[in-house]
Design brief:
- There is one protein chain.
- The protein contains six helices and seven strands; from the N terminus they run βαβαβαβαβααββ.
- Strands 2-1-3-4-5 form a five-stranded parallel beta sheet.
- By secondary structure, the protein is α/β, with parallel strands linked by helices.
- The chain is 48% helix and 12% strand.
- Helix 1 runs parallel beside helix 5 and helix 2 packs parallel to helix 3.
């Protein structure tokens, strides 16, 4: 119930591992191949020997404070005795108290440690940990392209609708312009100055029509 979900689209992934080991190389290679845009921040920590416990705890807490999206704890396998540090109370408590989701990939397929139980996700190898932490760039691009294609389709529909509306408006304007022209022509035809009285001509005297010779 208290397991934290692993982020689907991390920007930065922290790794607590011994730099230079095969496990380190596997994690870096896999993560870069899957998505070179995810930043990998490594805290060098031995998984056995002197100060191993302190280095692992410090690495977890340092990465947790940095605000990475996911933390990987990795090691390239070994005997059960070589992995005792992952049963250490301080290491388990650091994993449990971390606010950042933690993936445990310590390379011991047959046995599980208390660190595995405390982690938010347990996988069998460092390679699997990198795979779980870093999404494929192609998958991300597909999630981007699908909405983009949908948006472009909607934009094309909107463009067509706008063009149809503009055409209808232009037709209406032409129709109103034609009607106005007819009305103006009719009005001009009904104006007194536009009429021919008796078929010969039209005269005015002081602004009034002349109806007989006596008005001249």
């Amino acid at each position: 119930a208290i397991k934290k979900p692993i982020p689907k689209y991390p920007r930065a992934v922290g790794v607590v591992i011994s730099i230079g080991t095969n496990a380190y190389k596997d994690i870096m290679s896999v993560s870069h191949r899957r998505n070179p845009y995810v930043q990998m921040i490594v805290c060098d920590a031995r998984a056995q020997g002197e100060n191993a416990r302190e280095l692992i705890v410090q690495g977890i807490r340092r990465l947790d404070r940095l605000g990475v999206d996911t933390i990987i704890i990795g090691r390239g396998g070994g005997s059960r005795e070589d992995l005792e540090v992952f049963d250490d109370e301080a290491v388990v408590r650091a994993i449990y108290e971390a606010k950042t989701p933690i993936i445990s990939g310590t390379g011991h397929e047959g046995d599980t440690s208390l660190a595995d139980d405390a982690a938010d996700l347990r996988v069998e190898t460092p390679t699997a940990a990198a795979t779980a932490a870093v999404p494929l760039i192609d998958d991300i691009l597909r999630t981007i392209e699908l909405p983009r294609a949908k948006l472009e389709k909607q934009q094309e529909k909107l463009k067509q609708s706008r063009e149809r509306l503009e055409n209808r408006i232009q037709l209406k304007f032409k129709e109103y312009e034609h009607q106005l022209h007819l009305l103006l022509t009719r009005l001009h035809g009904n104006a007194p100055t536009a009429k021919l009285v008796g078929g010969f001509g039209y005269l005015e005297s002081e602004g009034k029509p002349v109806m007989s010779a006596g008005q001249m």
